[in-house]
Amino acid sequence: MDKTFWIIFGMAVVTYLPRALPLVILSKIRLPEAFVRWLGFIPASVLAALLGPELYLQNGGVALSLDNYKFLAALPCFWLAVRTKNMVLTVLFGLAVATVLYLWI
Amino acid sequence: MSTKVASRTRSAATPWHELILGIGKAVPIFLGYVPIGIAYGVLARQAGLDLFAVMAMSVLVFAGASQFIAAGMFGAAASGWSIIITTLLVNLRHLLFSSSLAPRMARFSTRTLALIGAGITDETFAVASAEPAAQPHHPLFYYGLNLTAYAGWNLGSFLGAVLGPLLHRVADLPLDFALAAMFIYLLVAQVTGRALAVTAVLAGILSVFFAAGLHTKWNVVLAALIAATIGAGWERWTKRSG
Question: Which of A105, B5, B155, B177 is 20 to 30 A off residue B227, Cα-Cα?
Fold first, then answer.
C-alpha cells in the first residue's frame, strides 16, 4: 500500500468517528428535553451555514453582484422549492439555470 | 411502555416495506449524487489520483465536500497530515447530525448504530430528520436510505474516474450547483416555523461572516451552533411571553 492509500485511510477514520460516536453514545442515555429541542434547530442551521458561503462568497469575498451566477441561480431555486416542495425538480431546474447563467455570464 | 410495544409490532410487521421506503426516499439523493460524483471523479483524476485512489476515497470516506477538497490538496502536493486534519474539520459537522438523530434511534443495537452512522451525510441526515420522530423507523429504513445514497456516490465517482481523462470539459460546467440546489430544497423543507426561519437566515449570515471575515474553516460548525442556540432560546422566550 502506498502513501496515498494511508492518507485516504486516515481521512476515513477521522470522518467515521464523528459520524458514529454520538449515535452510539447519546442514544443510550435519556437526553434533557431542552437539549433535544435545541438539536431540532441543528438541521436548518447547518444547511443554511453550508449554503451561505456557497452562494454568497467568491474568491474569499462577499459577492452580491450580477456576475455571481450561483447567487442568481439560487433565487429561482428557492422560489421553486417553496412552490413545488419537489427535490428532483428543484435540483434539475437549479442545474439548468446555473448552466445557462454560467455560460452566459 | 405501550408505545414501545406498538412500534415493535409495527417494525416487525413491515421490515421489507421499511427498506423499500428508505430506498424510495433516497432516490432524489441518488440522482443528485451521480452528477456530483462524476464531477468529483473527473476532478480527482485531473488532480493526479489514479482510479484506485479515486474509488478508495469514495468507498471509505463517502463525504463529498471533503473529497473535492482532498483531491485539490493531493493535486497541490499537500502533506498527508494537513489533508487528514482538513478532512476532520470539514466533516466535524457530522457530530451535530449524529447527535440530532440519536434520540430517535434509542432502541437500536450498538452494531446497528455503528453501521447507520457510517452513512450519515448532509443529505441522508436531512431526509432522515424530516421524518416524524414520533413514529420510529426500522433500521432497514436507514440502511435503504444510506446505501442508495452510497451507491449513487460510488457509481458517479466511478463514471467520472473512468470518463474523466476522456471528457475534461465536464469539469467546466457548474455541476456542483446540484448540491446547492439540493440544500436549498432541504432547507425550505426544514423551515416549518418563524423561529426556524430566523435561525436559518442567522446561520447563513454568520457562516459567511466567519468564512470571509475571520477566515476560519470552522464557519459551518460555529454558525450552526450559535444560530441554533439563539433560535431555540428565541422560540422558548416567545412561547413563554406569548
Answer: B177
